[in-house]
Amino acid sequence: MKTEQEYIKDLSEIRAMMERTSKFMSLSGLSGIMAGVYALVGAYVVYRLSYSTEEGLENTLNGKILFGDAAEILLLALAVLVLALGTAVLLSWQKSRKSGEKLWNSAARRLAFNMAIPLLAGGIIMFIFFFRGLEEFIAPVTLVFYGMALFNASKFTFAELRSLALLEIVLGLISFYFTDYGLLLWALGFGLLHILYGIYMHLKYEK
After folding, report:
1. 64-73, 79-88, 146-155: range with lowest mean pLDDT
2. pTM
3. Residues 122/146, Cβ–Cβ less than 8 Å
4. Count of CB atoms within 10 A of residue 92's CB?
5. Between the CA of residue 139 and those of 71, 119, 143, 146, 148, what are the distances in Å?
6. Which of 206, 118, 197, 198 is nearest to 164 (CA)?
């Protein structure tokens, strides 16, 4: 006859097993840190390449003063995205291998699908704004739709991701009003917030 403590232990093990099968738990905090670093470096390079140094932090994403090569900016943004995604996949694969789990499981597929829809919609809107000459709205759009993607994904991975998602959305909404500080707010959202989130997740789940 099992004791009450043994039943509680069994229930805890069953709950942990169900969570592993329904949620993607191989997301690495270090990947968040690296994504933040890539974003900060990318934002700095865009600022140095594309904007007048006399403007300071103001007007960092205002279409009226943009004089950099648009193709260079898009290629740089793509490079940052590829680096961030590549690092996330690599570190998540290493984490899943250590825990003896498959990386591309049903939870990972659900997470990817729920992230892809708002990211695709945001990407289309971003390109529409870009080709229509509305560059000042690119940073707000990317922040808001990225936040929505993270909020969707939080249902299939760590619940803490929801807090990061809401902060990204709030920054995006602020950026819609303060468009002159678009690049600065973008760097805060994709750079600083990612680094802080990654450090928190690493210390909580990976140390």
Report:
1. 64-73
2. 0.79
3. yes
4. 20
5. 17, 13, 6, 11, 14
6. 197
Q: What 8-state DSSP symbol labels residue 159?
A: T
- Contacts of residue 19, Cβ cutoff 8 Å, sequence gap at least 6: 25
Nearest to 153 by CA among 89, 198, 108: 108
Give first-to-last CA distance, the chain, whole Å: 37
Angstrom distance (rounded) from CA 150 to CA 163: 9
Rounded CA separation 174/94 (Å): 37
pLDDT digits (tens, 9 = 90+) for 81-128: 888 888 888 888 887 777 777 777 777 788 888 889 999 999 899 889
Q: Which of 106, 87, 116, 113 is nearest to 25 (CA)?
A: 106
Give the tens place of pLDDT for each residue, 153-179. 888 888 888 999 999 999 999 999 998
The dihedral through the CA atoms of 181, 182, 188, 189 has a sign that is positive
Tokens of 197: 């989130």
Angle at 198 between CA 153 and CA 40, to 5 degrees: 100
List the one residue out of 120, 127, 139 whose CA is nearest residue 182. 139
Structure tokens at 42: 């990318």
